[in-house]
Write a structure and sequence with these properties.
The chain is an alpha/beta fold. The protein has a single domain, classed as Rossmann fold (3-Layer(aba) Sandwich), CATH 3.40.50. 36% of the residues lie in helices and 17% in strands. It contains 9 helices and 10 strands. The strands form 2 sheets. An 8-stranded mixed sheet has the order 3-2-1-4-5-8-9-10, with helices on both faces. Strands 6-7 form a two-stranded antiparallel sheet.
Length: 242
């Protein structure tokens, strides 16, 4: 998606007021691709202090993204953006994620939101992350004193730009080891117009990444497009299978 098309789409969004339960945070978006282009302006409009982390922060298109984001947004190096932030949104290709995180410096006490999906493609379609693990678990191992939360990886780019594009509220499963960090991320998810669904510790991130693989495979291989909406039950299901 071109930067120009992104700005046109962003201008048409309905922006949400910051709910009382969500505190304004300093958020670093590491990478300036489609995910950051979609979420950066929306997070700034919610009152958060947005900094883009880029290897070339002075590049004209990055400065244009900063200008369009407004509300005091800035662009700097990934390490500097991460150092200033309370929350880091890691929006880089999965093949570069570990190298990027390793170069961000001390991440102790910071929340790292991981929307990254592995894209291992075989002849019969998409495959799981090599090694039966997940990107989020790898990042948590690299930054053991940070709070990694898997989130936003199951939704499409157009839904990142406009949560109302499909006419129903999308579910965003989240996984992480720290309850307070997940509560903070869930608040962001809800403020951005989605339904946060806590599925447990970070070891379940590989299941969430698998949800992306199912959606991508049906889209790219079978030509069927769908998104996730999880409905809560008011009563527990009967335990009839042993």
């Amino acid at each position: 998606m071109s930067m120009r098309r992104h700005f046109i789409l962003t201008a048409s969004l309905i922006l949400f007021a910051l709910p009382p339960a969500v505190q304004a945070e300093a958020i670093a978006l590491i990478g300036t691709g489609e995910v950051s282009q979609a979420f950066g302006p929306r997070l700034a409009a919610l009152g958060h202090q947005v900094a883009y982390g880029s290897r070339s922060p002075d590049r004209a298109e990055i400065q244009e993204l900063v200008r369009q984001t407004g509300d005091g947004a800035s662009a700097t190096t990934p390490a500097e953006a991460a150092a200033r932030a309370d929350i880091i949104l890691l929006a880089v290709p999965w093949t570069a994620a570990e190298e990027v995180v390793a170069g961000l410096g001390d991440l102790s006490g910071k929340i790292i939101i991981d929307p990254v999906n592995p894209r291992v493609i075989a002849e019969d379609g998409y495959r799981d992350f090599p090694g039966n693990t997940s990107n989020a678990e790898r990042i948590q191992n690299l930054a053991p004193r940070a709070f990694v939360v898997k989130a936003f990886n199951t939704i499409s780019t157009d839904s990142m730009l406009d949560p109302d594009a499909l006419g129903f509220k999308l579910s965003v499963p989240i996984a992480g080891n720290d309850a307070a960090a997940k509560k903070t991320v869930a608040g962001l998810v809800e403020a951005l117009g989605y339904d946060a669904v806590d599925v447990g510790p970070v070891r379940y991130a590989h299941v969430i990444e698998g949800l992306y693989l199912l959606r991508a495979n049906t889209r790219d291989v079978l030509g069927v497009h769908f998104e996730y909406q999880l409905q809560r039950r008011e009563t527990a299901a009967p335990q009839t299978i042993r």
